[in-house]
Specification:
With 64 residues, the chain is of the alpha+beta class. It has one domain. It contains two helices and three strands, in the order E-E-H-H-E. Strands 1-2-3 form a three-stranded mixed beta sheet, with no helix packed on it. The longest helix is centred in the C-terminal third of the chain and has 13 residues.
């Protein structure tokens, strides 16, 4: 799934009930509190991407 944030061609992977979001959400709070990551090409685009991910209501995989 396309998830632009710090590059226009960013992607996330959906597998069953999970979505691997990578750098779109470096911290769990990015998605839980709608906080765009600081390294982005456009704050509004990054925030819209987070909202798109959140709307899928999947379990997010966060990097440790």
């Amino acid at each position: 799934m396309e998830t632009p944030w710090h590059t226009e061609d960013g992607i996330s992977v959906i597998y069953k009930d999970y979505i691997v979001v990578g750098d779109v959400s470096p911290l769990k709070d990015n998605i839980l509190k709608d906080i765009e990551p600081k390294l982005n090409i456009d704050e509004e685009l990054a925030l819209n991407t987070l909202k798109k991910i959140k709307s899928l209501k999947k379990n997010n995989y966060y990097r440790p």
